[in-house]
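residues and backbone:
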Amino acid sequence: MVRGKTQMKKIENVTSRQVTFSKRRNGLLKKAYELSVLCDAEVGLIVFSPRGKVYEFSSRCMQKMLERYQKYSEECDISNTTKEHDIQHLKRELADKKERISIHEFTQRKMLGEDLESCSIKELNQLESQADRGLKHIRARMTEMLVDQIDQLKWKERILTEENVLLREKCGDQHVDGSVFRTPPAELRSIQNIDVETQLVIRPPNVQQHPYVDSSR
């Protein structure tokens, strides 16, 4: 016979309820005992019957287990209280951060010239002063950066000049009257020293014979 699924609701019949309580109580006590033996666990079980009778099981002294449980509960309460306090503190800090961000965004929009309709003359003067101070800081920073760049370029120029001088010395450059003359290489000097021989042939002009002139003369 297949046993049907028990419905999780109060048994209305008193006799059936008492029988079910006795069976399940004994089974629960047995499971507690097995758990303490098999797993070497400290198990404490207290059951009150509908008539107020107490059934209990403890693998060790029940009083010590209750004291231990009470101490653990107090520590948990303190820990939970501390956590709740920390959570509330974080919430307040987060709300403060959000408010600051909102104020900064609103101020930034005004600095960009937006939402100025609601500003008074005093607020506009304050915004103008803040803008002037901001421009001074920006210009000072730009000047500082430009000076640094100029110094770097001067340093690079000095390094390149020194390298150029060294290269000229290695190549045998001669500085004369502010101009540079390079010494011609040996091959070119040898070519310049070779005498160039030329042959000049002198011939009479080519004269055509006139028909009336005696050629025998």
Summary: The radius of gyration is 57 Å. Confidence is low (pLDDT under 50) at residues 175-181, 191-198, 207-217. The beta strands are 44-48, 54-58, 174-176, 179-181. Helices lie at 14-39, 62-111, 121-171, 186-193.
